[in-house]
Amino acid sequence: MEIWKAVVLGIVEGATEFLPVSSTGHLIIANALLGLSGDAAASFDVCIQGGAILAVILLFKERFIALAHVRPLTTYHRAVAAAIIPFLIAGAAFGSAVKRHLFGIESVAYALVVGGFLLIAAARRYRATDSIRPPNDSVATPTVRQAIIIGLCQLGALWPGMSRSACTILGGLIAGMPLKASAEFSFIIAVPILLAASSVDGLHAISTFSSDEILALAVGFIVSFIFAVFSLRLFMRLISAVGLEPFGWYRIALGLGVIFFLN
Fold this sequence. Notes:
- This protein is mostly helical.
- It contains twelve helices and no strands.
- It is globular, with a radius of gyration of 18 Å.
- The two termini are 29 Å apart.
């Protein structure tokens, strides 16, 4: 792994991890363009997610400090657990099959298009019901019922290219949560899920990577963190100003572009 490629992948990961555009899909496309493949490249992609995780913890530190106090358990604790458990179970059960059959550029391209249309439909429905929703409610606590709906919708992210962020935000809207609250909750529940994945691959990478590869990993991690901080702040402003629809059109354009290129 050359340093400049680590920088490129760090930018892609940090800029897209928490946007509803699929960081995994973008990384699969980026790896193909950079000529990277195999288990080492996949492990690298997972490991640099740690930079994005750190960015979320920093920007939403109050939420994580509250979650760290597990006594007494609050509705927010129960909601977080209800949202992540379905995905962790499904990931453990089907993760290997997903990697074998769906981690390809063409599959990602179709997922980008499908997810794009879903975002556009949700954005237009959200605008239609916006007047009955609390404005700019970015600190709303979901109920356990809402969290279960979000967790079930998150299962769609097992298809690379669908986007975990997109699926959870859509789940929040379906459950009746405000847009900004859905986005924030999406960021919060991403941390334990991404930690579970990146910690395992991180330990494996450290034990098998050469010193040069570990240096590239460190560079990718730092770049991912920096771009995730800016991306998260920008996204929270954008969804208040323009909503989700532009992200849907971007996904469709990218997906169709990849399909056209492949054919």
